[in-house]
Automatic annotation (TrEMBL):
GO terms for molecular function: DNA binding. Gene3D superfamilies: 1.10.1660.10. This is Helix-turn-helix domain protein. InterPro entries: DNA-bd_dom_put_sf, HTH_17, MerR-type_HTH_dom, SinI_DNA-bd. The lineage of its organism: Bacteria, Pseudomonadati, Planctomycetota, Planctomycetia, Pirellulales. It comes from the Bacteria.
Length: 73
């Protein structure tokens, strides 16, 4: 059973991620993160473990960057 305490509201989740609430709403619309709806008032709620997964994904790039100097033209 999922508890309401496992979720954060938009402003709380945005602060948790270090972004603005509007950025979080845009990410939800773009499909980068899923918003769950409160059954009583339909507010957006974000699951803490999904926020943690998003942070981990951002902090750990998939491939190492190429550090070779670029040739100038």
């Amino acid at each position: 059973m999922t508890k309401l305490s496992d979720y954060l509201r938009v402003s709380e989740a945005a602060e948790y991620l270090g972004i603005s609430p509007n950025t979080l709403r845009n990410w939800e619309r773009a499909g980068k993160i899923e918003a769950h709806r409160n059954p009583v008032n339909s507010y957006r709620l974000f699951k803490k473990e999904e926020l943690d997964a998003l942070l981990k994904q951002v902090q750990e790039p998939d491939e190492p960057k190429d550090n070779r100097p670029r040739k100038s033209k």
